[in-house]
Amino acid sequence: MAPPRPRHGPRRRLLRTGAAAAALALLSGCAGAGGTSFGGGDALNVLMVNNPQMVELQKLTAKHFTKETGIKVHFTVLPENDVRDKVSQDFSNQAGQYDIATISNFELPFFAKNGWLHELDGYVAKDPGFDQDDILAPLRESLTAEDGKLYAQPFYGESSFLMYRKDIFEEEGLTMPEQPTWKEVAELAERTDGSRPGMKGICLRGLPGWGEVIAPLTTVVNTMGGTWFTEDWEPQLTSPEFKKATKFYVDLVRSHGERGAPQSGYAECLNNMTQGKSAMWYDATAGAGSLEASGSPVKGKIGYVPAPVEQTKSSGWLYTWAWGLQKASIKSDDAWKFISWASSKEYEELVGATSGWSNVPAGKRASTYANPEYRAEAGAFADVTEKAISSADPKNPGTQPRPTAGIQFVGVPEFTDLGTRVAQEISAAIAGRQSVDAALATSQKLAEKVAEEYR
User: Fold this and answer.
1) Torsion, Cα of 109, 114, 117, 119 (10° steps)
2) Does the keyword Signal apply (predicted)?
């Protein structure tokens, strides 16, 4: 994905001041929860999200990476919203508390432009065994900044798709279409709701956060004809298309979604699906590895189909959790050794051997999908995942032109603040505390303030 580039000349402040840096940080205010200790000495300090693949990496590092290199690694593992906030604070200040952090293809263009990241082309050139050409093209492009330099390496890549319980569908006499529409998904959610005690028809994120409820919701908006902004930066959150998509999403999760939906994000929906509390789940393709992992109670019971559509041919997002090296780090050489190891073919083989190939952090290397061992164990979702990633179109994800690249987000730094505030409004609607119309009316005003910066 090419770096997002506003078409109408935004004010070039892009986080150069404290006020703009605050725009990139989330308003959660909980980044310090639990405290943080640092490894000190020669240890690398790595900040990362608490997704299952990251937790597996933490378990394997000392026994393998440290044993082979002598480099100690201290991990700080936090929920997604907290990680985003803490990374933004530390990297914007160039405090150097963390040498490496998981960042996404959303933050990378802004971080790189402001000189917060160490470029990696030099390290790649000296490390031919890493095999940069094996990284899937959409991810290479999304981690290359406007200056043409590479600033991060993917730990895994993902799109989004629909996961469903094949056994439940068979018991209920239901058939999942090869390319479902959202209307069909809503009907299937109604049919499967209550099919077993405690089981709901679908799990959809409702947790506030621009990377939580806003991500799947925006893909629904895209395929139903909506957009956050026109190509001339006119906010569209109260447009008929945006309203239709949002009401559909809210009504679906309220009628047939998980209990506690306003507090449910990726982790909660994964848990619900694993424990048999949901018949369907629309979310990141990365979730499949956990569902099919050895010991999963639903292993072999899940079917996978592309993200539901309405007016577009595809609607899955494009996302990667990638390793960014802070420019202020004084351990950049050691940091590259860790990044190279954690994103390598060899690391995937290690996970395959120790935890099963379905648990490999995939979605980033072409060789993964050609690996017979991977395909033997992850065949249920491998092809669907690869197709979803390759068909994602960040520049034109909907039915109308838009001012920046981005599928499940708007590619400007202010979106962290805007998306989070809008998410709070949407989550309140899911909780029944206000109507969708009221939520979007407030959201439209918030979007108007952002649009003023770019017209």
Assistant:
1) 80
2) yes
In whole angstroms, what is the distance from residue 347 CA to residue 57 CA? 9
Tell me whether domains 41-156+318-384 and 157-315+388-450 share a fold. Answer: yes
- Chosen CATH of 41-156+318-384 out of 3.40.190.10, 3.40.50.970, 3.20.20.150, 3.40.50.720: 3.40.190.10
CA distances from 409 to 120, 227, 307, 403 (A): 25, 10, 16, 12
Tokens found for residue 253: 């999760």
Tens-place pLDDT, residues 181-237: 999 999 999 999 999 999 999 999 999 999 899 999 999 999 999 999 999 999 999
CB 216 within 8 A of CB 205: yes
- Tell me the average pLDDT across 428-434: 98
Tokens 């590259």 found at: 336
The pLDDT tens digits of the residues spanning 304-317 come to 999 999 999 999 99
Domain boundaries along the sequence of the chain? 41-156+318-384, 157-315+388-450
Confirm if 98 and 78 have CB atoms less than 8 A apart: no
CATH class of 157-315+388-450: alpha beta
The pair of structure tokens assigned to 103 is: 């960042």
Place 9 in a pLDDT band, splitting at 50, 70 and 90.
very low
Give the mean pLDDT of 22-32.
Answer: 35
Give pLDDT, residue 341. 98
Q: What radius of gyration, in Å, describes the C-alpha atoms of the chain?
A: 21
